[in-house]
Each structure stands twice: as structure tokens, then as C-alpha cells.
Amino acid sequence: MITSSTGAAVNDICRTIKRRYPICDILIYHCVVQGEQSSESIIEGIKYMDEQNLDTLIVGRGGGSFEDLNSFNDENLLKTIYNSKTPIISAVGHENDFMLSDFVADLRASTPTAAAELATADFDELKLFLQESYAKINRILIRRFEDENQELEYYGKQLEFLGPKNIIKEHMDNLQLLKDSLKKAYGKNLQDKYNEELNIYHKLNLLKPDKLLSLEIEKLNKIRITMIKNLISNINYKELILDSYKNNLLHLNPSTILEKGYAKVLKNDKSISSIDDVMENEKIVLIMKDGKLDTTVQNKEKFNE
Known about the structure:
It contains eleven helices and nine strands. The protein is α/β, with parallel strands linked by helices and about 300 residues long. Strands 7-6-8-9 form a four-stranded antiparallel sheet, with no helix packed on it.
């Protein structure tokens, strides 16, 4: 509200707003509403309140003479009201008082009290509207749930009618009727026909999804067992090959040969295997399992072939 905080209008506006819409926050900008400086004071109030991001501004005052109300005909004030970003309700004087501010504002109220009524919603009416809306939404939802439930029941019956279980039952019923007819028409061949029907019944049972699934699971289990056996057999075979390679490597390992008492003969850091490769008094090196021996050839004797 942009008005005089000491006038009767401000009290009427506050009482009306609190009665109609108790949760509303009211901001009052005190200004001079008559006299030479009144228009400037009102302009300052509008500019200030226009920057506060408010919902509505009420600009006005209570009744008085034309001279008292003339401030609301000021050209600069009219421009300020017209350029305001916030919606403005002009409420000047009584119902018969018309100021130029009434024609440039967003809305005119005949009195300050009427401005309070225009600016607010009736809280009781809002509550009643919300209650009625809630009841209406509730009724719509209930009807919607009922429609959806009926639709689900319809589709459920359709699925039940068209499902494998119902088809199998229909075949079984037909077979039962056929069996009864055969009993009446064929006395001698009754047992043969019965066995034939029984075979058909067993075939139908085999065509059931659970039967087919059981057969496939059984096949898969057999394949899995065979694969496991083959895998174990293959692993055992590979282990035998690895053991064979390991034994061959152990036999060919020079350390294993040296462990048996043999020695490796070196001459000038080269291996020799014949007495022809060394002369008497020449130095040779014997590599043993745990070290080496530096020695000199004293004598050599060649074995007869």
C-alpha cells in the first residue's frame, strides 16, 4: 500500500485483507497524500515499491475535497503509474470521486476497502474451491480406476480364453467327447481306440511349454556333463604330457648328470670330449657338481675301440 499510514484508509484496507486473505503479507509505504509535495512523495513510494517484486500495489487515500485529491491528477504521477512493472490499483476517495490516476492504473477501485477486496481472494472461497476440486479429482480418479479395472478384467478374461491352458482344456474336452462317442459306437474296438486317444493325450502333454522346457533342460544337462568330462579328460592328458616334458628336462639337465659323479672337462674355457683334444702337461679344468678343479695332464691313455 502506498498511502498515508495515519489515515483511516490504511486501517480499512488492512482489516479487509486480513479478513479475506489472512496469509497475505502487507507492506505499507507512508507518503503524503495531499498538499504541494504529495505527488512527489507518492511517486517516490511507487518507484521504491515497484523494485520490491510484489504482487500488487494499492495507491490511494480516503475521501476529501477535490483540492485534497488533486495530487492524483499530477502528470508525473500518472506517468509513474503507467510505467510501473507491478500491477497498480487506484483507490482514491469515494465511489463518486474520479481522478486521472484511475484511468492510467491497471484497475480502479471505488474506495480503499474495495481495492483491498479486488487485490485479494476470499480465503473461505479458496478453501471451498479446493475442497470441491479435491472431491472432483477424487471422483474422477475413482471412475478412472474403475474403468481401468474393468478393462484389466476384460483383457484378463481374453488372455485366459486365448491362453494355452484353455486351448489344451478344449482339446481334452473334445477328446473326452470323442472317447464317449467311441464307447457307444464301437464295442469291439473300444480298447484300441482308447489307447489311440491316450497316445494323442500324451502327445498333447508333451507339447505343453513346461514339458518342452523340461526336455530342453535335460538335453542341456547332458551336454554340460559331457563337456565337463571332456574338459577333465583333456586336462589329465595335458598333465601327462607336461610330466613327460618335465622328466625329459630333468634327464637332460647338466646338473643331474654331474650329480651322478660325472665331470665336465674344459680347456681354455672350451668343452673337450676326447683325449686327442689335450696334450700331456697341459692344464685343464674339471667342473664338478659343487665346484671346479684346476689340474695338469700327467699321462693320457687311449682306449681300444
